[in-house]
Amino acid sequence: MTRLVRWTIVAVAAAALVTFPYWSAAWESSRFATTLLRDALILAIFALSLDLLVGRAGMPSLGHAAFFGAGAYAAGIAGQRLATDQLPVTLGAAALVAAVLAFVIGILVVRSEGIFFLMLTLALAQIVFAIAFQWTAVTGGSNGLAGVGRPMLGALDLSSPDLTYVLVAVTFVLAALVVWGLARSPFGRALIGVRENERRMRALGYDTARLRLSAFVLAGTMAGIAGALSAYSTRFVSAQDAGLGNSVRAFVTVLVGGAGTLGGPIAGSAVVSLIERVVPSLLPPELRLSEAILGVVFIAFVLFARQGMVGLGRYAWLRVRSR
Amino acid sequence: MSFELVFQQALNGLSFGALLFILASGLSLVFGMMDVVNLAHGAFYMLGAYVALSVVQLTGSFWIAIVLAPLALGLLGLAIEPVLLRRLRGRHLDQVLLTIGLSLVIVDVIGQLWGREVRSLAAPPGLDGSVTLIGGVYPVYRLFVIAFGAALAIVMSVVYRRTKIGRLIRAGVEDAQMLGALGVDTNRLFASTFATGAALAGLAGVIAAPVFGVQPGMDTDPGLLYSLVVVVVGGLGTLSGAVAGSLLIGPADTFGKVLFQDVALAVIFAIVALVLLLKPTGLLGRIRIAR
Amino acid sequence: MGGFAKNELAAKRGYTYRLTRRQLLVASSAAALAACAPAAVTPGASPSASPGKAFKLGQLLPFTGVYAELGNSMRRATELYLNQHDRKLANRPVTLVYADDANVTATGVQATQKFIDQDQVDVMMGVVPTPLAYGIRNAVHAAKLIFIDTNAGGNALTRDTTNCTPSCKSPYIFRASFSSYQISYPIGDYLSAKGTKEFFLAYANYGFGTESAADFTTGLKKNGGSTTGNVAPPLGNPDFAPFVTQIKNQPTKNVYSFFSGADAIGFIKSWNSLGLPAAGYKMYGAGFLTEQDVLKEVKELANGAITSLFWAVELDNPENKKFVADFQKQYPLLPDVFTVQLEGEVAALDEALKTLGGDTSDKDRFVKALEDVSFKSPRGDFTFDKATHNPIQDIYIREVKTQNGQTVNTISDKIAKVTDPGK
Asked: What residues of chain A lie within 8 A of the CB of C11, using their CB?
């Protein structure tokens, strides 16, 4: 298939995604599917950012929610303290705060590897969580930050469910494009090189620490933007947004979908959202086993479909094509 | 702080550290031998505590529970290793991921079988009193825990250094492939190691229950979180690392929480971050050559 | 086909060089599936307002996570009440929709949105943790959905606050449980008025704990009392010995504590094993410190603790006796405070619906009907404060005693008709 055809399909799909609330209104009169898709897309952006680290750079981080939370809080607090709801300000604040935090944490963690990197990111993120949980004056403490302002673009109020969705969907498309472009760029390939064989990359003259730090800051910034979107959607920031549970959730999403691919985090967020939101309503109330189901799905993927859903999809496609 | 206060808090820190050692020993063993960070370790610890609850309910004896719970967990470990982990031999990251899935399943099943209320286990009669020490009255059970932890460390050390199985384990830690090439049945060795790690987690569940309680969420806090912290800080995979880690984290957590109340939540992680930044492989860890 | 081979190789290594059609198809079909699934699974419902039509009641409770047992308790209360009333409230047959928040605020917020958008419930009930109640306050207010809080005690939910921070009241939000003020201030006032003026504080270091400690202190100060210091363990702390040791090494013998659940059990066990009762220390607290879930585990270790709450199993009034008996007949368990909270809520709703004749089409009339309810419940007379929608209830001073082999809270005194100040 030619590039033109491929890009046209992508453009059409993106347009369909962004305008979902409008063309779905016919058969989906409640806004439920819209909000479900909106939350799945926010998770997808978060997972895409984590995949930059886990999948492409080979840096397994269990503390990524720190940046998600930082972005969410920054968007909310900036709006309240600066008495403005303008999107460029609050979203900008979110990206800036997340980037700075990622830089600070990144400098500390970038020289670790494997399990030590995992534990260090976990520990530092837990410190961020503790600050969010205890610093009641600034973050609202354990009660959370209420009254996050509505996202406004000039005079346009984006707080209606449909427009919030559009904001999230547009950001998602942009994020996916960024990640896609990154993968093909020299930077992206250098990251993969660092993942595969760091010694050789250094021998080739690459500053691997700087590469990893750049990836870390980029991933953190993107996670912060996802956090801000979450704050706009629920108009509330909870300390748990920066917590270990949120980090693990993103990690599971990346792995189930397929690490190191563009479609992986996206497919993963669809699956995880499905299991979390839809499955519980299918089970009788006595049987609250959604965690166990997630666990079994996870085990099955690790044993039989290591490349995640994307790998499965690829495998199925190959089988179909080779007939 | 008066001397009596410091003494009592030091005892608190030491007994807490002893519990942490018992908890972390299994995780350290499995990592040292198989290069697998068993993230289901907390779930095993939790299962051990709940099994102990049932055993005590049925038999009325804490001591029977100390035997049966680790046994049950050991059998579970013996079943899990060949069925699930062996397929992923050599794929260390995947084994870790599998243990994540395992813990999700085990914890949910515990909730279904035993319910989700908060439970507790009393110290056994004989150990449930208090003795007068410097600074006042101190619970006998916590002194028992210190003794038990020390005894466990000594037993493990003796097994490790003086017995044949210990030699095999040490060899496996150094180079499992070579061990296989030398004709040792590595399948059985790995299965038994994993089973022992699970049994130790179960043992910790029983011993720690009178102090830490038995409730939903215990698999992560204190279970997995503290085990990971101790093992990573002390130095992965070695017995001395687990001992060093618990002797540091126990008192540091105790004193830290009391002295720095407002950041108590962050104290232990600050310690972890500090240690890892200063010595990235942990206090007594060695740099391992990547396989 | 170079592109194909390259992607084959890439597939083996787990990454790709460019977005392929397959990935796009997989990803978008997964996303589409996710979007379609909820519509396929739960049919949308139209709101029902006329008498005789089904009344949709949404309950957001924790069925998994650390508060799971509270959720189960509350569900038992709902089922008991509905079974006793032919699965009807007034003349409307009830359709129950349960959702699990799993003690994750984001999950609870999403579930609330589902109640509003998809299930279109007539009334929403539930919510155990205060952060979740604060998190959904705006959504519920904007949707004009009547929400009756079953547990979350954060003061702000039924008060006027500046900038609605951390939250504020709404005409559509009622509370059938308590405000943390109600279980903390009165006992501070009561004890200091009786002459016990100096206290040391021990509380879990999170919103509920700090609020309770602060309100208790305000109560003390009203009669010239004061606090001499505090220990504040983190929520979910595993080892209480260090904190209890600190208490033992300071001179103030009267200790006011706020802990609940596993924390309360750990605290009380440490309190005893470190010899505090023998050393003359006395334990006081907000009611949750010694509620059923705690007492059944610590038993006589809690003897002598004095706490305040709006209910106790032993409360001697005909409604409570009947409630306890009925509950034990249906379940082999004693009811706890959480079941009482939910029972009060459903009963209030029932009363309001009876007044309306089952007609809930006028939201303002519905709100007024709820405001006007007044009936006798297991905890005594039940009404909502019209200004705040918080319950006006009697607060009992209770003492833990072991009698007939059971450890229970016995009532030693009563502070009548406590309201929340509302600001």
From this structure: 307, 311, 314, 318
